[in-house]
From TrEMBL:
Keywords: Nucleotidyltransferase, Transferase. It comes from the Bacteria. Residues 11-241 form the Nucleotidyl transferase domain. This is Nucleotidyltransferase family protein. The keyword Cell division does not apply.
Length: 248
């Protein structure tokens, strides 16, 4: 695969949520620091960004923010900036808008701190490198990483989008022809959110705006995607990781 543009060098990682469905685990720690397969969930995300060539990442914090900051200070390989939401949770859209103020106007990755994948093939471009090469701002507002539902662990079974042959995305409810799940990572230019509110809002508003403009695209990830939403899901995720490591 040929990467058509320069690597994406900056990212926003959404890590400020309360993790209410993970209680009682999250009664004493933030969800992104819950260890799965021997390391905190957020480290899977940060590792993927670092391996893709990202140099600077903003991480927003709220729930047990001090624990998050301490952990992030110890992470090597990325310059990590903190977007502090201790006083007010901004939802995912508002969190991105606030975090963007700490970055420049170049293309960014946006990722969730508690969604990650395993099983990429060594020696090939990573999923994020592929996504950076796929993203074409001349015809796309956002390019999402997506996954087939059969390649997920811990997901609720709901499809999000339908993907056309060229990667164009529409809502699954409007077109159930080729279903995919949003895998918690996308590339975009910050200018797409120039008119966004500064109050809390859901980024799905801008997913739908991009769809309406015919400018939301996606590509299917290599490997297996994990989401860990409840304490009971931890064991299932760890078993999936053990299985992949056994056959790697």
């Amino acid at each position: 695969m040929t990467i058509r543009q320069a690597p994406i060098k900056q990212a926003m990682v959404l890590a400020a949520g309360l993790g209410t469905r993970m209680r009682p685990v999250t009664d004493t720690m933030p969800k992104p620091l819950v260890r799965i397969g021997g390391k905190p969930m957020i480290d899977y995300v940060l590792d993927a960004l670092r391996e893709a060539g990202v140099e600077r990442a903003v991480v927003n914090v709220h729930h047990f923010a001090d624990q998050m900051e301490t952990h992030l200070k110890s992470y090597d390989g990325l310059e990590i900036l903190i977007s502090d939401e201790r006083d007010r949770l901004m939802n995912n859209g508002g969190g991105i808008v606030k975090g963007l103020k700490l970055l420049d106007r170049e293309t960014i990755f946006v990722m969730n701190a508690d969604l990650f994948w395993i099983g990429e093939k060594p020696g090939r471009p990573t999923n994020l490198q592929r996504l950076a090469g796929f993203f074409d701002p001349d015809r796309m507002d956002m390019a999402m990483l997506c996954v087939r539902i059969e390649d997920t662990t811990g997901h609720n079974g709901v499809n999000d989008f339908s993907m056309s042959a060229d990667g164009g995305l529409t809502r699954y409810r409007d077109d159930p022809s080729n279903p995919v799940v949003y895998a918690g990572a996308f590339a975009m230019q910050p200018s797409f959110l120039e008119d966004a509110p500064t109050d809390p809002f859901n980024i799905n508003t801008y997913f739908d705006r991009a769809i309406a403009r015919g400018r939301l695209y996606g590509m299917v990830l290599d490997g297996h995607w994990l989401t860990v939403g409840t304490p009971e899901a931890i064991g299932e995720a760890e078993e999936t990781i053990r299985r992949f490591r056994t056959f790697a």
